């Protein structure tokens, strides 16, 4: 378990090298490196403002919607270079994000939401095949196909958001806090779904505040603080580490609040950009 | 009673034409959040192309040229101006479109001068007699064509990939991008469609009983603006309802002007704006709109 461990080398997964991102004068990521090998589930943990969402925005190419940009480093997926690519190109390469807060199209029906998910698919012919796969995974979406998506419950909306992303047949699925605001039972169901999606061959990069759940899903984990990777290693090892247990799992002695790895300075309020 | 029916049919007919223009406003607003004040000049360009080409190529090819020309111009405005403008506030883009409008309208009115250009439509001044009710054939053509085009547009908006991409972008541009939707294409498509709709509207605004295309047509076209606003700038249904309300109001008020003479002359031109103000006092987002516009 070392600081800035790039993880096991893998040429076909996602590779982030020394990535720095800023929003105007404000730096949100300060040179982070991570790897998501093909077929794995990797999680990125961290509190509000740690830069988790910024990382996903950088990968998906949506920083410009937030007036941000990559200032250094590189993001690669397989042989493709994702840094600097347009969002539609990232999707075409098979990297699809489920945004934080679900962001379903509330005024459109469930069916139309799924259709929207297939708009950027590499292969339009396979849309009906993808739809079947999604509806097998989430039968409730078939029952509600003609309903307005805004009328679904929170858990159903999260299922729709994941189903919509699967319509593009991703090779790598980016999940931004999929269990946020869900009841524990629903969160557990979403976790099962993520396992199932991964078992079907999709690589998953999971960003979470719910560390217990994320560490139970992932094989490898990174901990972000104030835009830097402060810890990384196999998920099981991290789950056993004192710092992670104390800080993210709420177990053990919480009198000692020293910064992790002695590296992070006093934390500035960054919640505005990654909330 | 007969007068009333005639006025009503005329009102619905001109209302359908306003709805075409208002639909263009709405499509552009939904795709790019820009209130397009250059819409009247798109309309003028479409009409001008039809007027200048119908003698050499015939009416129907000229109509196609007009539609295509206005669509290309719309796409060009999006590509060269709207997309390049790096502004935070979309109200600024609305002001940019005023500039575009001034440039285009000035040049075209210079070209047109004091002429009144015929559009060479096949309906001429023929009148359809239904019992005692007389309705110009051109108005019926306007009503039918506008209804058909609006229906086709709404079906496409609902059922095609273009429509789904458009509505997704309108609802949440960032999430739509995450689905792989190319925003540039969506908004360019919206401007092109709006241009074509405006050109079709130009045709029906400049044929009987209007003598032809002259430089005042942009002022007439601006009457569709209250139609879009009162319906709600982000609602296609609103554009239809708004267009019909404005058209019928204008037609009835002008038709019964004799009885309303104590209010002064030219009330027909003012009535659409009065209706808009009354609707906005009660529903600030328009009849079907969801977004309030502050100080545009």
Automatic annotation (TrEMBL), chain A:
Composition bias type Low complexity, residue spans: 259-275
Residue ranges, annotated region (Disordered): 254-275
Annotated GO biological process: L-amino acid transport
Superkingdom to which the source organism belongs: Bacteria
Domain ABC transporter, residue spans: 14-251
Protein keywords: Amino-acid transport, ATP-binding, Nucleotide-binding, Transport
GO MF annotation terms: ATP binding; ATP hydrolysis activity; branched-chain amino acid transmembrane transporter activity
Keyword Transport: yes
Coiled-coil regions listed in the entry: none
Family the entry assigns: Belongs to the ABC transporter superfamily.
Designated name of the protein: ABC transporter ATP-binding protein
Automatic annotation (TrEMBL), chain B:
Molecular functions per Gene Ontology: transmembrane transporter activity
Coiled coil: none
Pfam families, per the entry: BPD_transp_2
Location (main, coarse): membrane
Compartment(s) where it occurs, according to its Swiss-Prot or TrEMBL record: Cell membrane
GO cellular component annotations of the record: plasma membrane
Keywords: Amino-acid transport, Cell membrane, Membrane, Transmembrane, Transmembrane helix, Transport
Gene Ontology BP terms: amino acid transport
Domain of life the protein comes from: Bacteria
Membrane-crossing segments per the record: 7-28, 63-82, 137-157, 188-210, 270-290
Signal sequence, renumbered to the chain: none
Membrane topology: Multi-pass membrane protein
Family per record: Belongs to the binding-protein-dependent transport system permease family. LivHM subfamily.
Listed name of the protein: Branched-chain amino acid ABC transporter permease
Organism encoding this protein: Planobispora rosea
